[in-house]
Every structure is written in C-alpha cells, then in structure tokens.
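Quick check before the chapter quiz. The format below is the same one you will see on the exam, so make sure you can read both the input and the output lines.
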Amino acid sequence: MNSFADNFRSHMKRVGATRYDRNMHDKTREFDNYFANALDKEVCIIDGVETQAIFQDQSQSNNKELSDDKYIVLPNSVECSVGSYVIWRDEQWLIFTGEFKTIATHQQLKIKHVNHSIKWIVDKETKKVSNNGDGWGAYVQNQTLYTLGVSFTGNNLSLINGKMMLYVKNNSETSQITIGDRFFISGKIYKVEFADSISRIGLINLLLDEDTLNPEVDNVQLGIANYWGSNGKDDEQKNNSDNSNVTTSTIEIIGDQKARLGRSYNYSVVQVNEDGSKTPLKVSEWNIESIQTLPINILERDENMLQFSVIDDSRYIGNTMNILAKVNNQYQSLSVKIIAKF
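Here is the expected output.
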C-alpha cells in the first residue's frame, strides 16, 4: 500500500511540480479538448503521412484575394515545417510560414494552395523528370501586376516585363535550380533570373522573367522546357560574366533594412571597391517581392534610386519584403522588415 507521500508525489508528477508546470498542463489539456471536438478538424496527408489537422480560414484582404490562404493547427507531436506539402480535400497545399507560439501547446502554420507544378529534366541521358515524373508543386504569383515589374531603357522609359514569383519546397532536387533555368508556366516559358533560399528557410523563392518558346528544345506536350539538348544557360552566364566588370559580390543595395510605418525611404545600388569606397551604379530594373499585400506606396523609381513610403497601418507590422535590383544582368536583394511607427 502506497503511503500518502508517495501518492502526493505521483499526483504532483502528473499535474506539475511547480505553478508554471501546472498552468502549462492545464493549457495543454484545454487544447487537447478543443482539438478532439473541433468542427473544422479533417483528415489530411502531410509529407506522405496521414494525420488530422484543424483548417481555419484567413482574411483574403491580406493578399488582395489572389489566393485562398488557410491556417493549419496541429498537435506538437505531428512533424510539419515550412516547405511541407499538405494534401487536403484532394488538393495540394504548401506550408509557407510557421508561427512561434508564446505558449507552445500546439503548432499553427499558414498554407497556400499549390497552383502550379514545375517539371524539368534531372538526367539528360535517361530523360528523367523531376520528382519521379510528377514535378514539384509550387505557388506562383504574377509579379508584373503585384509589384513594380518594369525595366528602364533610353531616357528612363519604363518597359513592362512579364514576371512571375515562384515558391517551391527546398529539397535535394529543387536546390539544384540555378539562374538561367527555364520552365513552362501556363503555356509560356519563363527563365530564372534570381533564386533565394535564405529569406524563407524551407522554401526556394524564384524570380522568373518571360522568355521565348523554342520548339527545338522545349517539349510543349509534356510541359517541360529544355527537354532536348542543352539549355545554353552556361554560355549565357559566361557571356554575361565576360561583358561585365561588376561581380555580384561587390554590389550592395544601400538603404534601411527596417522600415517604420508612415515614413519614406530611399534605396540605391553601389559597387564596393577594394579600398572601401563606393561607386554609384545604374539600375536597369527594380522589383519588390512580397507574398502578402505590398505595405508600401511607390513614390519614385529610376536608374538611380527607389523611393517609397510605408503605409501607416499596424496590420503590416512584422511583414517582410525583398527589394530586388538588376545591375548588369545580375540581381541583388535586400530584405526589409516593417516595424512599428515609434
């Protein structure tokens, strides 16, 4: 027969030895009860593993109704991270962001509906297609309409450039995508101009520029660019290198990396010389990437500078955007985070 002391220690071990542990135990039990009886809990598949998750609607005003984003709520025991694929209601979704819970009783992440699948040849000899022939699900957003999407020529004349921003899971195959690679998107050919796997760990972000269809190398029926022969990107990159006296390692975008609500900011591009001095450079194209509503108003942009004002709306606090500048056919990026007004 257990003594009173043994029973007390056993009870305290279950509910928590300290007040913090007891409060955490109660909070976890509250979530478990909520999860067990939630009306919006459904069966889904996360990275090939069947599980249950709660799916919650998100306001579409955050992205100008360009996509039907959702929140997914999961117990901590479920393995899931940014870049994971979710199969829900026979549709594929891509996890974009994970929320750091201040009280870590569960997981809450944001998902976007996969609206395209990119395919490419991973082995020229065997014609092996990426992801065993299925391609990789991606979220593609029209960057021409969503951000600047213009280039400059002559006397600061703006030219519309067809551009797409693509997000795909970062894995052993997609990490091999490089500048110059070409893909079919909605029946058109787009070429990778910029690749970023740092800003959003777990995802690869590609800026794509509209290119010309070449029936001699592009397979329209299969939707695979550069299906036959080489894509010539190595020669193109070599020519760009030969014709340029500026390397990406010596180019910087100058400007604040934190932007306060209601204020204006200027950005320019310089070459950093060996002696530490800086030489201003001409920008052929400015672009701003954001997966949500762009929290700024463009005031001015030309070959020398980009100027914008941040919208005075507290809902944008914490949003991040990437400023992209194209110099000598090479892109540089600068990540800017929106912070409070004061």
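If your answer matched, good. The chain is about 15% helix and 40% strand.
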